[in-house]
Amino acid sequence: MQIDAIVTDLDDTLLNGESMLSPYTLDVMARAKARGIRLIPASGRTSFSMLRFMRQLDTGLPYIACNGGELVAPDHTVLESVDFSPEKARQIIRFLRENDFYVQCYRGEHFYYDQECDHSESYRDSSRMLGQAVGNLEAFVDFPTPKVLSVQSPEVVSRMYPLIQKAFPDVSFTISKPYFLEAQPEGVSKGAALRKLAGRLGLTPGRTLVFGDSLNDLTMLQFAENSVAMGNAREDIKQATRHVCATNAEDGVARFIDEHVLA
């Protein structure tokens, strides 16, 4: 497989079952870099939440955060950001709260929500961001925010996904984990951000390898001729890709690269 760039999601893809980069994965990525293969992580996480992984990977390249809402420079400063206006964010927050979702939004190193709960605690632990309960999130938001994330059961998320798209036709919605329903400004996606980076870096569909597991990865998987779904991916994502590799708990990304690119 003749590849000169690898684009990969982080959670449930490059990160293992403990949400870490395994020593084997770091070794494979270092060997790929030594071959001149460019590595571009593309995550739903904010740039701040990605930072510890990016320091480990040390790609020396721009990367994609916030489901495509942020393009981040190699020095970890934000090159481009597409944000919701405060007014639009409040409308989305109101709709989601009325439908019994836990809701949060973002600014810099912080994420904000109504009250402390299991969801806010879990997100704080996994993201390493600074969480702050503000009492009434809708009233609190008076600043632009790159995305609005909400949490409910997978069944409710699946049911609400088409309904909220109909309610807000000028907003991009996606699902990153089965229980995460996320909103980004219109036109924002990992695929749109990847196309921007392709223009900057000279990436081509025929020589780019893309890995993902969920609905928020679909647009970037569609960019590449060599698209790979994780063994733990959604079934519709597996059906949309050219290859399927082992699960993230089995270092599926690294093993695929080791066997098909570096061998």
Describe the protein.
The longest helix has 14 residues, at 154-167. α2 runs parallel beside α11. The protein has eleven helices and 14 strands. It has 263 residues and is an alpha/beta fold. The protein folds into two domains: 5-81 and 188-262, 3-Layer(aba) Sandwich (Rossmann fold); 86-185, Hypothetical Protein, Haloacid Dehalogenase-like Hydrolase, Chain: A, domain 2, CATH 3.30.1240.10. It starts with a strand and ends with a helix. The strands form three sheets. A six-stranded mixed sheet has the order 8-7-6-9-11-10, sandwiched between helices. 39% of the residues lie in helices and 22% in strands. The chain has helices at residues 10-14, 23-34, 47-57, 86-98, 118-127, 137-140, 154-167, 190-201, 218-221, 235-240, 252-262; strands at residues 5-8, 38-41, 63-65, 70-72, 78-81, 102-107, 110-113, 130-133, 148-151, 171-175, 180-185, 208-212, 226-229, 243-244.
List keywords for this structure.
39% helix, six-stranded mixed β-sheet, Rossmann fold, alpha/beta, globular, five-stranded parallel β-sheet, Hypothetical Protein, Haloacid Dehalogenase-like Hydrolase, Chain: A, domain 2, 263 residues
